[in-house]
């Protein structure tokens, strides 16, 4: 399947619609396969109490839906958890719980202080959503790695070093060395089209007049966070501070109107050779 570039761009910022969580019961149905890094990961079917799923859904909407979508299928900035290898490999919250409590500041996700019961409810809801998404046939909104392997890598390399102007800021032996080993599928696509976590700098001015500078770690309409020079994560309500962001990703946004579908597919083919 050859996804047009416009479809790939939309999929990066897909705002998922609501899909109600339901309880699963043990049944003789095919076991779906979640996408993994080079191989499929078996997603086991497991029952969860309806009340646990319901409370997890409410908590997910409160804390996670802005980034990951209301049905965990990707939102404004966060990845699609229904196609997540980490979620597929999670056992009773052993991986989901760590990510929720520790956060991923380098990827813009702050930590959340949640109880064991809350982690269990989130786990139940996310696993339920993943299983339901993988059991659906047709009409998928996700992008598989194979969808991004339809271009010509040599043409992509020529575009990278020539008309695309990519080599003026990036180098296959510098910042992009091994990029295809660090990212795959849609994450690699994001690095090309809109690297939202590309070390944006931010300065935050407090009500007292004090200015704190660092690397942008998190931002939505309610909260802005940074990692300062000591490695400490700090965040504030956007209504309480003024801030200025220097975002290298903006240069990529300016290229959106210049790309053709062939440019995007060929660049992706080339980037996938950088291992």
Summarize the structure.
The protein has 275 residues and is of the alpha+beta class. The protein has eleven helices and seven strands.
Characterise this structure.
By secondary structure, the chain is an alpha+beta fold. It folds into 3 domains: 17-135, Cytochrome c-like domain (Cytochrome Bc1 Complex, Chain D, domain 2, Orthogonal Bundle), CATH 1.10.760; 145-196 and 251-271, no CATH class; 201-247, SH3 type barrels, CATH 2.30.30.100. It has helices at residues 5-12, 50-63, 65-68, 85-89, 96-102, 116-135, 153-161, 179-182, 185-193, 250-253, 261-271; strands at residues 33-34, 41-42, 201-205, 211-219, 223-227, 233-237, 242-246. Strand 5 and strand 6 form a beta hairpin. Helix 1 (5-12) packs across helix 9 (185-193), helix 2 packs across helix 6 (116-135) and helix 7 crosses helix 11 (261-271).
């Amino acid at each position: 399947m050859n996804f047009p570039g416009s479809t790939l761009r939309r999929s990066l910022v897909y705002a998922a619609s609501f899909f109600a969580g339901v309880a699963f019961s043990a049944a003789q149905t095919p076991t779906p396969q979640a996408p993994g890094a080079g191989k499929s990961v078996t997603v086991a079917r497991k029952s969860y109490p309806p009340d646990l799923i319901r409370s997890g859904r409410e908590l997910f909407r409160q804390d996670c839906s802005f980034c990951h979508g209301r049905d965990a299928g990707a939102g404004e900035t966060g990845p699609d958890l229904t196609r997540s290898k980490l979620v597929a490999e999670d056992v009773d919250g052993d991986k989901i719980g760590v990510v929720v409590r520790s956060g991923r500041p380098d990827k813009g996700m702050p930590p959340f202080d949640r109880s064991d019961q809350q982690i269990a409810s989130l786990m139940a809801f996310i696993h339920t959503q993943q299983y339901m998404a993988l059991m659906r046939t047709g009409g998928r909104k996700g992008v598989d790695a194979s969808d991004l392997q339809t271009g010509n890598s040599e043409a992509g390399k020529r575009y990278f070093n020539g008309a695309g102007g990519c080599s003026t800021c990036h180098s296959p032996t510098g910042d992009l060395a091994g990029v295809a080993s660090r990212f795959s599928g849609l994450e690699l696509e994001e690095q090309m089209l809109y690297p939202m976590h590309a070390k944006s700098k931010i300065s935050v001015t407090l009500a007292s007049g004090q200015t704190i500078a660092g690397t942008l770690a998190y931002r939505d309409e309610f909260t802005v966070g940074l990692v300062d020079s000591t490695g400490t994560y700090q965040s504030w309500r956007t209504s309480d501070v003024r801030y200025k962001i220097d975002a290298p990703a903006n240069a990529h946004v300016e290229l959106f109107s210049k790309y053709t579908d062939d440019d995007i597919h060929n660049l992706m083919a080339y980037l996938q050779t950088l291992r």
